[in-house]
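_Backbone structure tokens_
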Amino acid sequence: TTVNSYLISKRITRAKQLLRFTDMTVDEVGAAVGMGDANYFSRMFRKVEGISPREYRKQCVNFRKNLP
């Protein structure tokens, strides 16, 4: 793997944590993980995870609501 793909992987992993456990906006999450351009962040997130950051957050929220 290249240095760039490693960094993107680490940034997306951190972004997933922030999306799950904070109320930060998607733009704020992108900036917090070093991707200041929100469009670039969303594109990279979708490329790695297969869904947008907003969809990811929605799935996590729905999952937590369904826990006993």
